[in-house]
Amino acid sequence: MTSARLMDLVNFLKEVPFFSEVDKASLLQLCKNGAEEQYPINRTIIRKGELGEAMYVILEGHVKVHDKDHIYGELHKGECFGEYALIDSKPRSVSVTAEEETLLLKIETTHFQELMDSNSGFTKGIMSVLIKRHRELDRVQERLASSKKELELTNSKMTGLINGAMDAILMFDANFRIFLANDSAKKLLENEDVDQRNVLFFLDEESAQLLESVCQNGAEGSNTYLPKMVKIIGSNGKETLNEGTLSHYGNDTDTFYTLILRNMEDRLMAENKITSLESQTEYLQEEIKELTHDHGIIAEHSSMKKVLELIQQVAQTQATVLVHGETGTGKELVARAIHEASARSNGPLIRINCGAIPANLIESELFGHEKGAFTGATNSRKGRFLLADKGTIFLDEIGELPLDLQPKLLRVIQEGEFDPVGSSTTIKVNVRIIAATHRDLLKLSKEGKFREDLFYRLNVFPIEIPALRDRGRDVCLIADDMIGYFSKKIGRKIKPLTSAQQQLFLEYGWPGNVRELQNLIERAVIVSQNGGIDWSNIIPNSNPSEEMVPKIKNEHIYTSQELIQLEKQNILNALKKSQWKISGKNGAAALLGLRPTTLNSKIKALGISRPV
Q: Could you mention a single GO BP entry for this protein (predicted)?
């Protein structure tokens, strides 16, 4: 540990209450024997039952103090834990786990005790802190001794709090005679004069037996949650279901109970609110995990500039948009651009990949479900359409949506309403729909695999995204932007593309489009050395040997489309010669001098299929 780091630790410890009275010279000795330890998220630092051997000071991050799943509290930067290990070696009474990446200063018991024995200044500082704490306890005791009036005032406040509580609060004795009822309880019992009445008279038979049983068996602890709902029957005959919490107090001769009742309607409203927030939290966490760097839409080619024009034209309308393009062309970027340029930009943009969710769960994801709607539905859940209310929903891979679910989506588009799974309640939403697909939906509709009426409802404003290979020098512009981003992210300075390297990017077909380009560049930056990248080894089939490049004996200039057709015909010739065998000896890949994976990508990109 460097001298500078030691002094940083000394200055840090001077701000920690436990060491605030210790002089810096003594703290320097302590730090020399201490050790900095880094703990990743969810790593246990102290385990309950282990023998204590050190205390810890939190330098960065924070931890939770817990016993299994029960959390006692959290500790943050500048706080200490494990101090008892300095005076005894008894087993730890709790566990401590890092809540995020956490840096600790570990002070072992032996070093601490040696410093206490050998350094009077250190001992004096620690004792000063302990004395200060003891004096603070004395002051607390003095305040407690003179707090009779405060207790009376507190009692008055407590009475006001009980009477003002929205929950019904009933206090009764061992004979079930009520001696206190707040205003909410009187309203629930429909009776203003309940003193000395038997509380059981206001319950139905089953609930009365339940309350008697719990009281006779003894309510454990300060609060016992009643295992079943209790039915209250008011003096005017009104019946309500309530959840209840029972507590007891007293001595061997006199026992008293407090019953707190909450109307189930209040609880359901709270649960629905919590579930809604949890659903939004889960969705946002998924979005954070899935979102990568947004390179924006870089466009110089006329075909992509046309797309930008279409985005501006449709953004300010409420029209449904169908984005079509090959996989990896950036359909989600187009959807985000439409949303951000629209009047709904302040609302949420909710995305869902219809092809990534199992068919038996997609309906629940889109429209939500009620508790008990199906096996495993232990709580109600809000669907993505409800989360997208007043905003936009992006339905990626819409061609994968199950056929039996398509009428429900059609209803949302036409009527702006849907029914959650397991519910008969219709929910209205105001959502703008943007769908995307790489499949021919019209062809699918003719084959009966996609509803034709849904296709026309989605295809109000179609946008076709060109493949990367058809965008000319856009591939070089996008590559330069991505190289700049990943080099900064990874911390490496990469030399810009030369003209020859740009030509390699232009010659490759990019069957995976922008997504393939992004993955390839990220990999290239990772393996780069001294700021240089051998792109000929990175870009597939970018370094053919001279012997394998056919010599052009005439001066005819081929168009890019002609070259694509020549490559397609050449691959067909190789496939026919190898009897459509791709890999292995005498396979088409070997004949063409390509890797089998590269050949498969080209076959897919060129739309080559084996004749039936």
A: regulation of DNA-templated transcription
State pLDDT tens for residues 336-386. Answer: 999 999 999 999 999 999 988 888 888 888 998 888 777 777 788 888 999
Q: In sequence order, what DSSP letters do the residues of 433-477 get, joined into one string?
A: EEEEESS-HHHHHHTTSS-HHHHHHHTTEEEEPPPGGGSTTHHHH
- pTM of the model as a whole: 0.46
Task: Catalogue the E-assigned strands of 307-364.
Answer: 321-324, 349-353
Contact 486, 521 (CB under 8 A): yes
- The model's pLDDT over 527-547, given as tens digits with 9 standing for 90+, comes to 888 888 888 888 886 544 444
DSSP 64-94: EEEETTEEEEEE-TT-EE-GGGGT--PBPSS
User: 293-466: which CATH architecture?
Assistant: 3-Layer(aba) Sandwich (3.40)
**What per-residue confidence (pLDDT) applies to 291?**
46
Residue 18 main-chain phi, psi, to 5 deg: -65, -30
In tens, the pLDDT along 195-251 reads 999 999 999 999 999 999 888 876 555 678 888 889 999 999 888 899 899 988 887
Rounded to whole angstroms, how far apart are CA atoms 343 and 57?
Answer: 51
pLDDT digits (tens, 9 = 90+) for 279-311: 666 665 555 444 444 446 888 899 999 999 999
Rounded distance, CA 224 to CA 220, Å? 6
The mean pLDDT value of the chain amounts to: 85
CA-to-CA separations, 107 to 110, 112, 174, 551, 561, in angstroms, rounded: 9, 7, 54, 75, 72
Q: Say if domain 469-537 classifies as CATH 3.90.1010.20.
A: no
For domain 3-137, give the CATH superfamily.
Jelly Rolls (2.60.120.10)
For residue 252, the number of C-alpha atoms closer than 13 Å in the C-beta half-sphere is 0
User: Is the Cβ–Cβ distance between 187 and 170 less than 8 Å?
Assistant: no
CA distances from 15 to 22, 359, 592 (A): 10, 57, 71
| Residue 185: C-alpha distances to residues 165, 195, 227, 472, 595 (Å) | 9, 12, 21, 76, 79
